[in-house]
Amino acid sequence: xVQKNSSSYWLRLFGPFLLCxxxxxxxxxxxxxxxxxxxxxxxxxxxxxxVSAAFMLGWVGEAAELDLAGGLAVxxxxxxxxxxxxxxxxYFAFAAGTDPSMVQFASANVTGANRLxxxxxxxxxALIGYFVMRSQKQSGQPAGKxxxxxxxxxxxxxxxxxxxxxxxxxxxxxxxxxxxxxIALVLLFGFYLWRQxxxxxxxxxxxxxxxxxxxxxxWGRRVFIIVVFLLSAAIILASAEPFAHNLIEAGSELxxxxxxxxxxxxxxxxxxxxxxxxxxxxxxxxANTGLAILISSKVNQWTALAGSLPIAYAVGGxxxxxxxxxxxxxxxxxxAAQTVMGIALLLGLRLGIRxxxxxxxxxxxxxxxxxxxxxxxxxxxxxxxxxxxFIRRRRYIKQTFAAPFKLPKNQV
Length: 412
Known about the structure:
Strand order of the largest sheet: 1-4
Oligomer: single chain
Distance between the termini: 29 Å
Strand content: under 5%
Mean pLDDT: 85
Number of strands: 4
Largest sheet: 2 strands, antiparallel
Radius of gyration: 21 Å
Helix content: over 70%
Low-confidence stretches: none
Number of helices: 17
């Protein structure tokens, strides 16, 4: 950290935020109708605006940990980082209330985001953690068998994921995402935030831009965080609708399946800052912290994000349930199955390299193969593997279910 009040200090504090703001301007001009370009260029520009705003949210979200309870800080950081994706998904669901063709895109964004996070994000953190361990061995530092060990509080997240998965399995069974299911998932998310607010507090270790924000005086920091949050949220809200429309139109121009474009490109763009934060922790030898952030984000996506869809759909003029065709049912089944397998692998609060490879391999196969029958088979593979580990680690099931309902001994 450079000396406070020096020109270098202020440049490093404000520079990244100014750069992100400048990068978001072309997209904002397009969103305002001041500039007219083709759908491909518009989608790229608006996507850059959303990613830039998401990075700013990530930096101030990390700094906000200084003023929040430890567990709640991680949870809210995860909420902040998925805000861009949340806005895009809610817009699709809201628009589907009057335009049935939009229904598929709402489910595409949610299922893609969830599977990308678990099937790609978790293994990447494990891979980086593995190479960090290898480098420690080569430098003579002691290093045992590789594995990312999570703390006991991580079981709370797993418990919430397990409960959310039991609720979400209703979706493929009923071929719809009902308002009751949505409300149940959102209420579960609210309970999750309340529970995390009682977790033990640890002094956060901030890095890079977040560290400069955190070094500001208490009230100066809080005002700065609020201003940046409002600015970033405004950029995302202004960009979300035109980004969604131009992304769909770009798919038509490029001859790419619109569903797949929304399912994978939109979440990849919006989750870039989130992955970046987790990867930075992993590269610094803190893979457990990086994985904890992604697990918390998974809880947010599988509760608040999925649950908000039928609510937005109803508010937008739709019925009390979002109807789903065979493809959407298959996507939710595959996502639920992957989630259950992820929970099963982490019941022992440890993610090893073989488990990471299995998660990524199944994700990659489902990503490449579009055949419905094969993808349903992959979902059953997820379930079978999950069942094996649930049986093998059955001693942890009861405490995992109970974890969300138990407050930590050392409450904040």
